[in-house]
Design a protein that fits this description.
The protein is an alpha/beta fold. Helices cover 39% and strands 16% of the residues. The chain has 14 helices and 17 strands. It has helices at residues 8-12, 40-53, 63-83, 97-112, 131-140, 157-163, 186-194, 215-218, 243-248, 283-299, 301-319, 347-356, 369-375, 391-406, and strands spanning 21-22, 25-26, 28-29, 91-94, 118-122, 143-147, 168-174, 200-203, 222-226, 237-241, 259-262, 267-269, 325-327, 337-342, 359-360, 362-364, 380-384. The strands form 5 sheets. A 7-stranded mixed β-sheet has the order 4-10-9-8-7-5-6, with helices on both faces. The longest helix is centred in the first third of the chain and has 21 residues, at 63-83.
């Protein structure tokens, strides 16, 4: 697609699943924070690989293997351009955001962190950006410190500065909160950390489909994200890391493709990026990620950002008049989602009734139990938007919530 695609109905037409009904109602899919739907181009790219190119990569000299290798490595270059990495070998394929964070925690953190050292995260992290660091701290006798947030769901920058000390070895930050929608000032925080030579990793799982990411401009040391939240397939993601840091890190998994030479006495390791890609990867998923990047580029971040922001503003304006509805997360800078609770109604019950109306939302703690504890709620109802959602769907959501209230 050479011209930008900015007609919502034309965009929606690319997603086969949006044509289906759920419980006899047209599907309204507002659970994009969990995973987004896939356009036909992504589905076709995956099918094409299995139909015409299916073969292992980096191994065979036959045509199928060469074709599959070329298609997979082309995506690495596409990702490099997409996030403006300096080199394509700074782009590591992973199983997803969680896989990328665990890789950094295990390989980078294991060598860096010593007993008594400190790692900083924020109070709004997803479990995947909490638990790997807790595990590392337990192994090394290090200390995990938490940057507090305000009642609006914003990071307290002054407290962040106070928490940084001589023992701080690493900071890991979420770019966009999956349960609050907060867009964190990561560039400012990276600059503060780097002034004291502290490396920073960014969890971009909820940002990459909303916001253009330029890793060189951010100057982050690591950036991780998943394909399935950006219209791509599940089971594949990306770890970006600065070349000098990746070169100093040991492999975290052993096996095929990550070796240069193996004897029973000693193994030498492959160069970047293959040093971190042991075993047969999710080849079809990687190729699907390339198609997802093409899809996003065909629309453009300007349109995506403007459309999702308009949906969020519209949703807030419509929902705020519902008596007994309280928003969780009201930061000034927010991505395309609303998270809320209804007085006297459990989020699970709300989600079940909305599903009967064909409306898919996420309910529960969203894998951010500390956030829920902070706001003293068991969970929230979250409606998260993608580029294919419409104001009419928001109106249906509001009508659905009014119906939920009438039933209790």
């Amino acid at each position: 697609m050479s011209e930008l695609l900015t007609d919502i109905e034309a965009i929606r037409a690319q997603f086969p699943i949006l044509k289906r009904e759920v419980n006899g109602k047209p599907l309204i899919y507002l659970d994009n924070g969990a995973t987004s739907q896939k356009p036909q181009s992504v589905i076709d790219a995956i099918s094409h690989y299995y139909e015409y190119e299916n073969s292992n990569i980096h191994r065979g000299v036959h045509t199928l293997s060469q074709d599959a290798t070329a298609a997979y490595e082309d995506v690495r270059k596409k990702v490099q351009k997409f996030i403006n990495a300096k080199y394509d070998h700074e782009v590591i394929f992973t199983s997803g955001t969680t896989g990328g964070i665990n890789l950094v925690a295990s390989s980078f953190g294991e060598n860096l962190v010593r007993k008594g050292d400190e790692i900083l995260i924020t109070a709004m992290e997803h479990h995947s950006n909490i638990v790997p660091w807790q595990m590392l701290c337990e192994r090394k006798g290090a200390i995990l410190k938490v940057i507090p947030i305000s009642k609006e769901g914003e990071i307290d920058i002054e407290e962040f500065k106070k928490l940084i000390g001589p023992k701080t070895e690493l900071i890991s930050l979420v770019h966009v909160s999956n349960s609050l929608g907060t867009i964190n000032p990561i560039k400012e925080m990276i600059d503060i950390a780097h002034a004291q030579n502290i490396p920073v990793m960014i969890d971009g799982a909820q940002a990459i489909h909303h916001i253009p990411v330029d890793v060189q401009e951010l100057d982050c040391d690591f950036y991780v994200f998943s394909a399935h939240k950006m219209y791509g397939p599940t089971g594949v993601g990306i770890l970006y890391g600065k070349e000098e840091l990746l070169n100093d890190m040991a492999p975290w998994q052993g096996g095929g493709d990550m070796i240069k030479n193996v004897t029973f006495e000693k193994t030498t390791y492959n160069e970047l990026p293959h040093k971190f890609e042991a075993g047969t990867p999710n080849i079809a998923g990687g190729i699907g990620l390339g198609a997802a990047i093409d899809f996003i580029n065909s629309i453009g971040y300007d349109f995506i950002g403007e459309h999702e922001a308009e949906l969020s503003r519209f949703a807030v304006s419509q929902l705020r008049d519902i008596k007994g509805l309280r928003f969780i997360g009201t930061a000034k800078e927010r991505a395309g989602l609303v998270s809320f609770v209804l007085d006297g109604i459990h989020p699970y019950d709300t989600g079940v009734i909305l599903d009967k109306l064909g409306i898919a939302v996420r309910t529960g703690h969203h894998c951010t139990q500390p956030v829920m504890n902070f706001f003293e709620v068991p969970g929230t109802v979250r409606a998260s938007f993608a580029v294919y959602n419409t104001k009419q769907e928001v109106i249906r959501l509001v009508e659905g919530i009014e119906r939920v209230k009438r039933m209790f």
